[in-house]
UniProtKB/TrEMBL annotation:
Signal sequence bounds: none
InterPro entries linked to this entry: DUF1329, TAT_signal, TAT_signal_bac_arc
PROSITE patterns tied to this protein: TAT (PS51318)
Name of the protein: DUF1329 domain-containing protein
Pfam families found in the cross-reference section: DUF1329 (PF07044)
């Protein structure tokens, strides 16, 4: 007979007390981050009910089971409203897997090492920007691994999107219409390189670029009618400033400058993805405001076992919707503690979005769900990521000396017109582009105005 030291409802009551007191320390039985720093294991920070879906549901669901319309009400409090709708009304299924207690499986190795090395060195200045205690731009890793308020927590998302110094993602995308058919299929490439907050051997900054945070480009490789369409964002370190946004449109045969606040429009026809959606932090942090913590507790997130390295080109099975093409097969686990943040687009008076809500897993401070609401307060879109270590069976992708960690897929559901953008980080796409991390030559190849013009022509 197993005797519980803590009652079944201990975790829920703890989170309610924290919310009432305005407290924000991660962990239930003991503070989380010191435990991570000393052992890398989170199991002593939480009672059984927050580490096991079996314990949490009192045996009604367990790892290996599938959440369907027939049983989703058991875990509806662990899902965002869009996922709940997808399962209840659209035939989506979710496979449950065990909760991850080893945090080394939730980070790129160098990023976790930088977070440990630099803990306690970050501050927010009077404007809300992140600096070291001696006034320099951030030096790598999560600046606030145990963030105390909404802005500190959100800065963990903003300063390093993919948590590598540089990344190139070969992306295969399908646009699923309300009738369940694939209306468009795109191959595109997303490239990002941090100029500050770097974790590699070259130091935290690119020389001469300390006033910037990142360069980011996206360009389309197929089909023919959009091939060459390219955009380049240059982000400033000051999060009050909008990025410089330029693009190459094949019809105009030149690079042109776009309004920097033009961030709430589809990148190409039929696509639900906006620049603003990227990493739930696609705009400079301080162009949004009224940040607040609105919830804390367990949640189901797609944070492990979501790499399909045994499938051709890392693609994956689909199911659900009118034609069984709308959703990717997805593995989710019980995340023991997720903090929920809301913010409003104060820098974008004409944005169709009235607020966003972001669910952040405190184990690695990465978002696991993101939902936007329109100006009337109705659900507008969701942007749901999947993550994984890139290992499965004898298949493995290396990031230097360590197994790679990254996002593997995204489902972006425009709820009001019922369109789905779903895309994977593929092994490769049209044109010979392949996914990878911390490559040395990305800047000149993909992240200058000359580069996007060259790719377009």
């Amino acid at each position: 007979m197993h005797i519980r030291k803590y009652g079944f409802d201990y975790g829920r009551r703890h989170f309610l007390r924290q919310q009432a007191l305005g407290a924000a320390t991660a962990g239930v039985l003991t503070p989380l981050w010191p435990l991570i720093a000393s052992a890398g294991d989170v199991s002593k920070a939480y009672p059984d009910e927050l580490l096991s879906i079996d314990a949490h549901t009192k045996g009604r669901l367990k790892a290996g089971d599938t959440v369907t319309a027939d049983n989703v009400d058991i875990v509806k409090h662990l899902l965002d409203p869009v996922v709940l709708k997808q399962v209840k009304e659209m035939g989506r299924r979710i496979k449950l897997v065990p909760s991850t207690t080893d945090v080394t499986r939730l980070y790129p190795h160098e990023y976790l090492e930088a977070t440990l090395r630099n803990q306690g060195k970050a501050v927010l200045d009077k404007d809300g920007n992140v600096f070291t205690r001696d006034g320099k731009p951030w030096i790598g890793g999560n600046p606030f691994p145990n963030g105390k308020d909404a802005l500190e927590l959100f800065s963990n998302l903003t300063l390093s999107w993919g948590r590598h110094d540089s990344s190139i993602y070969a992306v295969r995308d399908w646009e699923i219409g309300p009738d369940g058919n694939a209306a468009y299929q795109y191959d595109f490439v997303w490239v990002e390189e941090n100029t500050a907050a770097r974790t590699g051997a070259g130091g935290p900054y690119l020389k001469g670029e300390e006033d910037k945070l990142r360069y980011q480009s996206v360009f389309f490789a197929s089909p023919t009618d959009v091939k060459g369409t390219s955009y380049l964002n240059t982000w400033y370190y000051d999060q009050r400033k909008l990025p410089e946004l330029v693009g190459y449109l094949p019809a105009f045969k030149r690079v042109r400058k776009f309004p920097a606040n033009q961030r709430f429009e589809p990148l190409v026809a039929g696509m639900a993805l906006y620049l603003s959606d990227a990493w739930a932090a696609g705009d400079p942090m301080l162009t949004w405001g009224n940040y607040k913590v609105v919830g804390r507790g367990p949640f189901l997130g797609a944070v492990s076992q979501n790499w399909y390295g045994d499938h051709p080109n890392w693609e994956r099975p689909v199911h659900g919707g009118p034609k069984n093409q709308t959703f990717f097969d997805t593995h989710m686990e019980l995340c023991p503690e997720v903090v929920v943040i809301e913010a409003e687009p104060v820098g974008f008076p004409r944005a169709p979005v009235g607020k966003k809500r972001v669910w952040i897993d405190v184990r690695n401070m990465m978002y696991v769900a993101y939902v936007t609401y329109d100006r009337r307060g109705e659900v507008f879109k969701s942007f749901e990521p999947q993550y994984s270590l890139y290992e499965k069976g004898n298949q493995r992708v290396m990031d230097g000396a360590h197994t790679a960690w990254s996002w593997t897929a995204v489902q972006c559901h425009s709820v009001q017109d019922n369109r789905m953008s779903r895309f994977v980080q593929a092994k490769g796409v049209t044109g010979g582009y392949t996914s990878g991390y911390n490559r040395a030559d990305l800047r000149e190849k993909y992240l200058t105005e000359q580069a996007i013009q060259r790719m377009g022509t």
